[in-house]
């Protein structure tokens, strides 16, 4: 079996996605070293033996003596920290410059435009902006997961949305860009030594027309014509090259209409939350294990996606409130095609929908022969779930 390999997992905090990676590493026969954003004065508060590192001001000298065979990141900011660590330790990963460009919406747009990719009209918001191309979309430069993203149709909506975003995070610069009509797609991919491979194209069956952009359904394989899928793959490949991403996972978002494919983002990380559970490769290997094996230098680049269709619903938060519980879970699990229903919301926790919030109530997973069957199963299972959210009293 050779020497036991060690993989560094960089994460902002210990969450369910980190635990999935840790479990996958154990199945692959690897050891892991967590590096998380926490105070160095706390002595292993979560019992995970993680190394503490301030992600805002990373002191890489504190990692002196650390050795590993590969590195993986969970999230956008962790991807930048992973790039810094990889550069210091000589591990294969996306470069610091490419990750910095990928995780800043303005820089990414400029890279795409220089590469002659289709992008929305865009510019940084100015205090007295009055000549925006309505409808347009406002986006905080540094937030992810559609948090703070708002469509506006006129000047009064623009002023209100801009102030709303600033209340979410006052130090965020705001990007304004024209709204692009058409369906949106997500692409999961992997870059190996500069060569890009599409792992899966996800349809997003629910229209994402605003005013907020909460993602719910992801279904693969895509049902659009092969010509459109080829266009999607070619566009993301060009975007990966434009950003300079060379080694590791990517998660891309784009829209397609009659005029072509418009790049929205390419993130240097895998799909978030538990959504990766829908992807299986070879004889059933999960995405997390595939990415860990790739990080460790194993040859998994050509493993095919298993046949059939699969999908996930990220259960939206219908209103703000204190989560009290859920019912109908067994009925939802009994729907043909449903593999699992996982409620991640915790009793007593405050739940906030978009654009202020950044989480979901849980996930529904389905697997069937056809993508249309997957979508139907997810919608039917969701209809059987009922959530109790207690209204929050205003502070006096």
Q: How would a textbook summarize the main sheet?
A: 4 strands, parallel
End-to-end distance, in Å?
A: 64 Å
For the CA atoms, what is the radius of gyration? 21 Å
What level of helicity do the residues show?
25-40%
Low-pLDDT ranges: 41-46
Task: Write up what this structure looks like.
This protein is α+β, with helices and mostly antiparallel strands. Helices cover 26% and strands 29% of the residues. The strands form 6 sheets. The protein has a 4-stranded parallel β-sheet, sandwiched between helices. The chain has a 4-stranded antiparallel β-sheet with strand order 5-8-6-7, with helices on both faces. Strand 1 (6-11), helix 1 and strand 2 (31-36) form a beta-alpha-beta unit. Helix 1 (16-28) packs across helix 7 and helix 4 (105-114) crosses helix 6 (226-243). The longest helix has 18 residues, at 226-243. It is globular and about 60 Å long. It starts with 5 loop residues before the first strand and ends in a 6-residue tail after the last strand.
């Amino acid at each position: 079996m050779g020497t036991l390999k060690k993989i560094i997992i960089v994460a902002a905090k210990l969450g369910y996605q980190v635990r999935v990676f840790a479990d996958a590493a154990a199945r692959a026969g690897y050891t892991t070293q967590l590096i998380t954003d926490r105070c160095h004065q706390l002595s292993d508060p979560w019992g995970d033996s993680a190394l503490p590192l301030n992600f805002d001001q990373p002191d890489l000298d504190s990692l002196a003596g650390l050795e590993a065979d590969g590195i993986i990141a969970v999230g956008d900011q962790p991807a930048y920290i992973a790039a810094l660590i990889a550069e210091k330790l000589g591990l294969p990963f996306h470069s610091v410059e490419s990750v910095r460009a990928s995780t800043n919406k303005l820089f990414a747009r400029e890279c795409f435009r220089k590469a002659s990719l289709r992008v929305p009209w865009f510019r940084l918001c100015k205090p007295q902006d009055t000549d925006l191309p309505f409808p347009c979309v406002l986006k905080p430069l540094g937030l992810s997961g559609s948090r703070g993203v708002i469509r506006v149709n006129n000047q009064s909506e623009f002023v209100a949305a801009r102030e709303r975003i600033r209340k979410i995070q006052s130090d965020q610069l705001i990007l304004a860009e024209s709204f692009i009509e058409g369906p949106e797609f997500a692409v999961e991919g992997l870059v190996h030594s500069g060569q890009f491979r599409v792992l899966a194209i996800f349809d997003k069956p629910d229209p994402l027309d605003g005013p907020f952009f909460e993602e719910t359904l992801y279904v693969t394989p895509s049902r659009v014509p092969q010509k459109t899928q080829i266009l999607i793959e070619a566009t993301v490949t060009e975007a990966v090259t434009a950003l300079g991403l060379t080694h590791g996972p990517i998660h891309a978002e784009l829209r397609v209409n009659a005029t072509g494919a418009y790049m929205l983002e390419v993130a240097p990380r895998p799909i978030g939350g538990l959504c990766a559970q829908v992807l299986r490769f070879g004889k059933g290997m999960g995405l997390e294990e595939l990415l860990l094996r790739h990080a460790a230098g194993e040859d998994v680049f050509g493993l095919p996606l298993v046949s059939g269709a699969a999908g996930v619903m990220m259960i939206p938060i219908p209103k703000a409130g204190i989560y009290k519980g859920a019912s109908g879970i067994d009925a939802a699990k009994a729907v043909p095609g449903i593999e699992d229903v996982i409620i991640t919301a915790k009793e007593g926790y405050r739940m906030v929908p978009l654009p202020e919030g950044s989480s979901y109530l849980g996930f529904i997973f389905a697997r069937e022969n056809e993508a249309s069957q997957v979508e139907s199963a997810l919608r039917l299972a969701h209809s059987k779930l009922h959530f109790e959210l207690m209204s929050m009293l205003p502070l006096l």
